[in-house]
TrEMBL record:
It comes from the Bacteria. This is General secretion pathway protein H. The lineage of its organism: Bacteria, Pseudomonadati, Thermodesulfobacteriota, Desulfovibrionia, Desulfovibrionales. The chain crosses the membrane at residues 12-33. It holds the Pfam family N_methyl. It comes from Desulfovibrio ferrophilus. PROSITE patterns: PROKAR_NTER_METHYL.
Amino acid sequence: MRKAHCQSGFTLLEVVATLVIFGMLMTGAMLALNDDNDIRKEADLLRIRLRYAQSRAMGENIPYGIISTGSQYHLFRGAGAAQTPVFPGVSTINYAPPSDINVPAFTISFDQWGVPYRDSSQNTAINAALTLALTTTSGGATITESITVIPTTGFVP
C-alpha cells in the first residue's frame, strides 16, 4: 500500500511575491536614507574645510577662515578677509551646497595658533563651543547635522 507523501514548504509564487514586497520596502527605505546621506556628506565637507582653514592658518602664520552667507561659503586669507583663495580641488571661490540643504550664515577665522574667532578681524574669540546646524527636509521631517567648533583649540570633531 502506498502512503500519501506530504510535502511542506513554500511555492515558487510565494517566494517571488515575498521578494518583490521586500524589494519595494528596501527601495523606499533607501530613498528615505538618501537625503540623510546628502546632509552628512555636506556636513563632513564643511568640517574638512574648517580643519583645512585652521591648518593653513597654523602653517602660514596668517589668519584663515570661512565666511558663509547661508546660500554659499568661501575660504578667506588674511585679517579682514583680505584675500579669497579657493578650496583644494575646486575651481571657483564660492561653494554653494545643494539647494535643499540649509547652511547657517557664519564667519569663523583661525589665528596662527589655531584659535577660532567669530569674525574675520579676529576681535571676538570663541569662548564657548560653537555649533553650526545644517538642515534639510525629507518626507515632512527636518533632518539636522551639527558641526561643533571647540573654543581655544579650534578642534572640529
